[in-house]
Amino acid sequence: xxxxxxxxxxxxxxxxxxxxxxxxxxxxxxxxxxxxxxxxxxxxxxxxxxxxxxxxxxxxxxxxxxxxxxxxxxxxxxxxxxxxxxxxxxxxxxxxxxxxxxxxxxxxxxxxxxxxxxxxxxxxxxxxxxxxxxxxxxxxxxxxxxxxxxxxxxxxxxxxxxxxxxxxxxxxxxxxxxxxxxxxxxxxxxxxxxxxxxxxxxxxxxxxxxxxxxxxxxxxxxxxxxxxxxxxxxxxxxxxxxxxxxxxx
Length: 249
Hints:
four-stranded antiparallel sheet
């Protein structure tokens, strides 16, 4: 993969190129040598040497989401919320690499009903509200309320004998989650940060996020291997994926 003609200009196609000379010796030019760096969104910026001086990066050429057959180009890095020039590097053959589930709630504005003595009590109820608010303040475009009023989306806190932290069961119709139940295991969630991390993680499932690959253990709230004492709010990786999911509507 390389910048066409080793160009140092913007809006130049990125194409498949042969890295061999006429004698069969491997030769890699500047347009075929790429650097990968982290971005604020939790993804990666990919730049050929030909574009580094002008901050040109690998980009979806037509600046559109979710379209087949669009060229990749070397373009000026935008560092904005479009994310057309930011990339995830994952192993698609690995079963743990599922990032999205089969559905999501209809809109990012919805209510969660707390059910049961623990979920509505003085300890847990404020934490469930705080976890919803952590999504609301994350930039993911959510407006999630938590109360005891009837809702298709519920949250219960129960002491279970299992060693799991939280579970979300849901029904999907036409790609939309029509009803869901979040269950939090009080046996495993013994401190406030772990409780918030578990609740916010389960809310992420309502927004269409799956338990994602461990690109780095603490880069995502949706990673089972995260440190629940320090990662208890949505991370940039989670936020950009929610924005992407709802951009498809």
